[in-house]
Amino acid sequence: MATTTPNYGWPVPTSTDLVKDGATAIESLGDAIDATVFGLPSAGIVKINTTSFTTVSTQSINDVFSATYSHYLIHFAIDGSTTAQDVNFRLRVASVDNSSANYNRSALFQSSTTVTGQLLTAQTSWAGVGGAISTQRQYSDLTVFNPFATQITGAIGNGQELPSGNITQYRRMFGTTVTTSYTGFTIFPVSGTITGTVSVYGYKI
Fold first, then answer.
1. Domain range spanning residue 53?
2. What is the pLDDT of residues 23-60, one digit of tens each?
3. Phi/psi at 27 (nearest 5 deg)?
């Protein structure tokens, strides 16, 4: 007669089963596997898009926000054409940037033993979601909350800079004052050009 697997207790045929008993056990095994896999948690992180660019003054990434995910992780790996500069961020929909003055930012910066804070309101972009300098590639992450939903969009950014071998870090909170549904974004340096990659991941929660 059929026996069962040690972990899930799924039925499996034995070598002494009659053909009909073995077929019944295999059918039951398939049904059990299907039911278990279907019920597995769907939480996780899924890559949606990676975009590479070279010496651009602006880079738009369209159609990465949708109803499939509520939160997104954006990873920046960027270097720039100038000694030091911020990389700014605008949300967009239907391939058009929201460049109105409805972006806010709160930030903490640490350099050596000094910590400073800054608040910016009524800006035309999220300032400094990343950094870009000509001597060292900069890495930063931005977690964006509810960009596709018709509600205020928020984000948390973290990053580091390595000027002259010293480590500078920052943590920045971002928000909008409008309830627009967005499908993409644009990044651009304060000056010069940028080169690198941007990857977008969706969170299933």
1. 44-204
2. 787 777 677 777 766 655 566 889 999 999 999 999 99
3. -60, -45
CATH assignment of the domain containing 150 = 2.60.120
> Which pLDDT value is given to residue 21?
66
Give residues with Cβ within 8 angstroms of 77, minimum separation 6: 137, 138, 139, 196, 197, 198
Q: Please, which residues have CB within 8 angstroms of residue 2's CB and are 6 or more apart in sequence? A: 11, 12, 13, 14, 17, 21, 22, 24, 25, 28
Query: Please, what is the Cα angle at 180 between 174 and 185, to 5 degrees?
Result: 60
| CA-closest candidate to residue 146, choices 65, 78, 90, 82 | 65
Whole-model pTM: value is: 0.77
CA atoms within 13 A on the CB side of 188: 13
Which three-class secondary structure state does DSSP give residue 191?
A: coil
Q: Please give the tally of structural domains in the chain.
A: 2
